[in-house]
């Protein structure tokens, strides 16, 4: 339940706490009430950043919510014209505010980014059940900012993804910030403080569910793929003396991880991977050329021109390797019936 006590403040109540407290003794109730922390944000029209900021705070061990006015709040987000972490004040609207996330990110923070910067690691550790000092927490913290939080910061601060002189080819209104905005009452609908607060609760829940969904994916699917990529790189010279062929025993999303690894380790151009070998769903094996970037269709070294567009026995004859299945007309990918055959294709292509 959300209760607004004055026009400048929205404060929040955790219903589950009060339902639980009803069964306690008066002394136990008083002790719990004394431990409650108050989160304050502005009233009226809401945006994605404060909705998410409030959700994130509710995932920490410190902050719970209770009806209160702004000046009595333990933490204030998206209102107050002050950013002071020591006083738990997290606004970004004031003149002269230039705070960014750091770590190479340059987008000015919204209240979501501010709260995430200071509390995100705790939230991630809590939700993944990892120790707070586990390196994986840091990896996920940076990844979640890049893939989820930064866009909210940019949109709330009016920062375009691209130069303003480029005309968009279509309108996008299904991003998270747009969907949160649509939860505000329309101009011709009732808009009492109680209605705004009820809708804000929905918005905070929406942002939180999407945040947690992304976090679960990155923790349970993305991060394990990163670890397998690192293992493949570590053993690459056991596959080929050049170290330019990576082998995976199962398919995994490797491109982004490979480029991240090369950037973080400052891999010299002469030592970067050229081909990746992995099994496909049909039991055959693929040889894929590494692209020049994660978004590019151009390869660092496409499979040889003489093989492109050929299939089956014709390709096997041209390559001098049994079991060939195909090579794409652009040379970015090919296949062989066996792992050994796919490795032979990759090694032969390196030498051509």
TrEMBL record:
<dbReference type="GO" id="GO:0005737">
    <property type="term" value="C:cytoplasm"/>
</dbReference>
<protein>
    <recommendedName>
        <fullName>Metal-dependent protein hydrolase</fullName>
    </recommendedName>
</protein>
<comment type="similarity">
    <text>Belongs to the MYG1 family.</text>
</comment>
<dbReference type="GO" id="GO:0005634">
    <property type="term" value="C:nucleus"/>
</dbReference>
<dbReference type="Pfam" id="PF03690">
    <property type="entry name" value="MYG1_exonuc"/>
</dbReference>
<dbReference type="InterPro" id="IPR003226">
    <property type="entry name" value="MYG1_exonuclease"/>
</dbReference>
């Amino acid at each position: 339940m959300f209760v607004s006590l004055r026009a400048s403040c929205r404060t929040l109540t955790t219903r589950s706490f009060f339902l639980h407290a009803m069964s306690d003794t008066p002394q136990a109730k008083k002790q719990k009430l004394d431990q409650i922390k108050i989160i304050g944000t502005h009233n009226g029209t809401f945006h994605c950043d404060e909705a998410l900021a409030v959700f994130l705070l509710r995932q920490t061990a410190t902050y719970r919510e209770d009806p209160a006015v702004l000046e009595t709040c333990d933490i204030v987000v998206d209102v107050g014209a002050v950013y002071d972490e020591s006083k738990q004040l997290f606004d970004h609207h004031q003149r002269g505010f230039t705070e960014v996330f750091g770590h190479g990110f340059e987008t000015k923070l919204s209240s979501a980014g501010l709260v995430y910067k200071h509390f995100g690691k705790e939230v991630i550790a809590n939700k993944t059940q990892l120790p707070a000092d586990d390196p994986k927490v840091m990896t996920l913290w940076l990844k979640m900012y890049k893939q989820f939080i930064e866009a909210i910061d940019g949109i709330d601060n009016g920062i375009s993804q691209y130069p303003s002189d480029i005309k968009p080819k279509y309108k996008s209104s299904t991003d998270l910030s747009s969907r949160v905005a649509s939860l505000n009452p329309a101009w011709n609908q009732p808009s009492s403080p109680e209605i705004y607060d009820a809708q804000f609760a929905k918005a905070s829940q929406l942002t939180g569910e999407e945040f947690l969904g992304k976090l679960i994916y990155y923790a349970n699917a993305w991060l394990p793929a990163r670890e397998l990529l690192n293992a493949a790189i570590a053993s690459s010279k056991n596959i080929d003396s050049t170290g330019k062929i990576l082998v995976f025993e199962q398919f995994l999303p490797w491109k982004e991880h490979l480029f991240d690894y090369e950037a973080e380790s400052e891999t010299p151009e002469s030592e970067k991977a050229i081909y990746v070998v992995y099994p496909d769903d049909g039991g055959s094996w693929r040889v894929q050329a590494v692209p020049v970037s994660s978004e590019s269709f151009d390869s660092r070294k496409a499979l040889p021109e003489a093989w492109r567009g050929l299939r089956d026995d014709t390709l096997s004859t041209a390559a001098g390797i049994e079991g060939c299945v195909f090579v794409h007309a652009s040379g970015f990918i090919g296949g062989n019936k066996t792992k050994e055959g796919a490795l032979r294709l990759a090694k032969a292509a390196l030498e051509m």
